[in-house]
Amino acid sequence: MTMISKFSTILLLISTLFGVVLSMPQMTFAEEGKSVAGTSLKGGTVDSNALEKSLNKIEELRTNIELLEKRRDGSEGLPRQVFEKRLEKTTLEWLAQGIEYATKVADLQKDALDFSRHREQARKILEKQFLVANRIIQGLRSRTKTLVSEFSSTQLVSAYIDLLDAQNSVNRAYGILVENIELSRKFEIDTSHKETSLKESIEDLAVSRSVLLEIELQHVGALRESVSVSPDDKELKTKLTVSTKHLKQIADKFTPILTLMDSLGVDTSYYREQVLNSTGTISADVANVDVIKDLLVGWGKTLWVALIEDGPDLLFKVLLFLIILYISNKLSKILKKIVENGLERSELQFSELLRRMVVSLVRNIILIIGFLIGLSQMGISLGPLLAGFGIIGFVIGFALQDSLSNFAAGLMILMYRPYDVGDLIDSGGMTGRVSHMSLVNTTIITFDNQTIVVPNNKIWGDVIKNVTAQTTRRIDMVFGISYSDDIEKAERVLKQIIDSNDKILHDPQPIIKLHELGESSVNFVVRPWVNKEDYWDVYWDVTRTVKITFDKEGLSIPFPQRDVHLYPQTVQD
């Protein structure tokens, strides 16, 4: 195990530990153990009819036990196994019914009807129960054997079911024995020999469960190693899944036994720590103060040993990782400058968006390569990491479908270059000068200095009018004169105004023509050509000059007029 994995395991266990301690329910282990047999020691007013019904139920179960014993003894093979399991279940039910009856009798008042008879019956049942329960436990424990690693996955599942069923029955039988001892004290029965026998038996069971748990843990570890060597073997993967699941179940079946041991005053710290190490999960059922203390001490020693043994190597790897990141950062900046200079000196006319994307891409690629190299020097496998990045990328791409649509539109704008930074465009319902471009959106500054961010898919899906794409523009203007004015004079005046403006181009030639005879004016079209940056200056200057010159030359600029005639009307009576 690498140094990093050791630290990760320790931190994970510590964080889980504190979470469980804070949320631990307020139940003692002794209280929990009393519920194993499925009965309660709390009493109340006891009905005589209820006691008689309990005795009848006990007698009925005893008769069924005798019948099952005869059928078991007369059978062989699989039928014998079936009768054996039925006999175990029925016997456990008989024991639990006896505990229930004795509990009710213990609550009887001395002046109750048949008090002496019921107490004598309860004493006999309790005495006989202890022997029967121990016999059942011996038979059940013979079924809790270690599973064979050569089993197929199907055989393994069947064997685990039988094993867990036997362990569950053993747990119930031991719970009944503990309640039997507590009830025996109420009936003034000597329990010293019972307690000694029970402690020895349950400690022996704990050792067997501990060995079984350790063997199963090794079995799971071996399967994990096999799966890492042959990751495509489906049978091995199935075995590993089944074994891992049932390892936890075996540990869970061990926990009630540890609870009963606590109620008997037997130390269970070692076994609880083993359960924690086997499952990797800390819960209130297995954790107590001693176990937590031992775990913290053990983890502290492990951490200290790890720091002593692997600390220098880890420190060197961290320093190497930081040095690689520093070098990759410097190298990315150098390459960024080189690429920027190369694009500026290139004879190809790259768009501003393409330049920024190429520069950013080169820098980020160098940083990512440096980061991955640094991780590899730390001992981290890059295969699972890259696979994780692929899954994350798929999830993010699915969640950001609209953004990807904008990204695709940005790529189309990058390829076809309908506009660039600094161009004046009209698209997507917006008119203004492009101040910034990315693969997702375009930032436009309007004429009244508002900043508008437009998604690229809205622009690409609409008509794009690039006003400043060409170096020259034509200004279309219309000027009207009165029908009584001299047309040739007006045409000559307009030509002089156009020729006198230095910003108007002579190639192409400006157009000055009589265009139409309007309702109230004779209209001339004036269409000079200018450089795109001089458009508005020329437009405003020519308009102002035309008005001033027309006034000086006596040329009127008519406007629509309407004559209104009023006719008097004679009112007749």
Q: Helical region count? A: 16
Count the domains.
4
Mean pLDDT comes to 76
Structural class: alpha+beta
Biggest beta sheet summary: 5 strands, antiparallel
The main sheet orders its strands as 4-3-2-1-5
Radius of gyration, CA atoms, in whole angstroms? 48 Å
SSE order, as H and E? HHHHHHHHHHHHHEEEEHEEEHEEEEH
Oligomer: single chain
Q: What characteristic shape results from the CA principal axes?
A: elongated
Helix content: 55-70%
Termini separation: 122 Å
Q: Tally of extended strands?
A: 11
Task: Report the sheet-strand fraction.
Answer: 5-15%
Low-confidence stretches: 1-44, 282-287
Describe what you observe in this structure.
The chain is α+β, with helices and mostly antiparallel strands. It has 4 domains: 33-283, no CATH class; 315-399, Orthogonal Bundle (Helix Hairpins); 419-466, SH3 type barrels (Roll), CATH 2.30.30.60; 472-553, Alpha-Beta Plaits. Helices cover 66% and strands 9% of the residues. It is built from 16 helices and 11 strands. The protein has helices spanning 3-23, 29-33, 48-73, 77-106, 115-141, 153-186, 192-229, 234-263, 269-279, 289-345, 352-377, 382-399, 401-416, 456-460, 487-500, 535-553, and strands at 424-427, 430-437, 441-445, 451-455, 465-466, 472-474, 477-481, 504-505, 511-517, 522-527, 529-531. The strands form 3 sheets. A 5-stranded antiparallel β-sheet has the order 4-3-2-1-5. It has a 3-stranded antiparallel β-sheet with strand order 6-11-8, with no helix packed on it. Strands 7-10-9 form a 3-stranded antiparallel β-sheet, covered by helices on one side. Helix 6 packs parallel to helix 8. It is elongated, with a radius of gyration of 48 Å. 22% of the residues are buried. The model is unreliable at 1-44 and 282-287 (pLDDT under 50).
